[in-house]
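[Backbone geometry]
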Amino acid sequence: MTDIKTPRSAQTRATEERPKSWKPPSQLDAPPCPDGYKQRWLRHRVNGADDTKNINACLREGWELVRADKYTEGQYSAYNGSIKAYEGVIGVGDLLLARIPEEIVAQRDAHYKAKTDQQTQAWEDDPLREQHPSMPLNVDRQSRVSFGGNKKSS
């Protein structure tokens, strides 16, 4: 009688599959972002009122709304509210999914960095930031503070 033994290579931990644990679903599940893009959720409603100002500003900045019909592998809820332009866009509650090319993100970051550097340089060049000859500070000045009582003559 011969015992059939499994080879040692088949007995490794790598081949043993552990049971998967349950985790609660995310409310903001989104399809994977394609290479060269960044994506985020944009607000389109505030306290029940449409916030078209925010969406229009983001669209002018370069964000593109992501449509649900382009993704068949996942179950992504599509917007079906009062604004017809957003129908079919992936949305959750008051948020819509949008993406932007990474080149535009880099240009926007460079713009705001230059603006911050300019403001920092203006602050560093401020003549009033420290003592300036045209506005000397009197460091020998003395003051007295008294609380209640009679005034004393000095």
